[in-house]
Specification:
about 110 residues; DNA-binding; Homeodomain-like_sf; DNA-binding transcription factor activity; Arc Repressor Mutant, subunit A; transcription
Length: about 110
């Protein structure tokens, strides 16, 4: 059999199925998972006590997979800090209908409840 024939024979041969190989798909909420794991890690160990390898291990992914989403630990920390800061501001912002009232009226309404 010539090389050309041998190559065609291999190309048409059915691919063998490897039952041990597991294909894992990236979840659509991977960034949210990373954010949650990094917030927990930074919160308990501090910025300098955590590496991207630590965060990746918490998620069961490789650090290379983590680098697909964030170029550095600082970028991840910064994004999480900005997200948490925005959530804190939203939590303490008064509704628009309250902002137009003076403090006395506001306290009167609260006391009436």
């Amino acid at each position: 059999m010539s090389r050309a024939q041998d190559g065609r024979a291999r190309a048409t041969a059915p691919a063998t199925h490897n039952p041990e190989r597991v294909i894992r798909r990236r979840p659509k909420n991977r960034r949210a998972q990373i954010a949650s794991a990094s917030a927990a890690a930074f919160g308990s160990l501090g910025y300098h006590g955590v590496s991207l390898d630590d965060i990746a291990a918490r998620l069961g992914i490789s650090s290379a997979a983590l680098y697909r989403h964030y170029p550095s630990k600082y970028a991840l920390f910064r994004e999480e800090l900005l997200r948490l800061s925005a959530a804190a501001v939203t939590a303490v912002t008064l509704p628009a209908e309250v902002l137009g009232h003076d403090a006395e009226t506001l306290f009167g309404r609260l006391a009436a409840r």
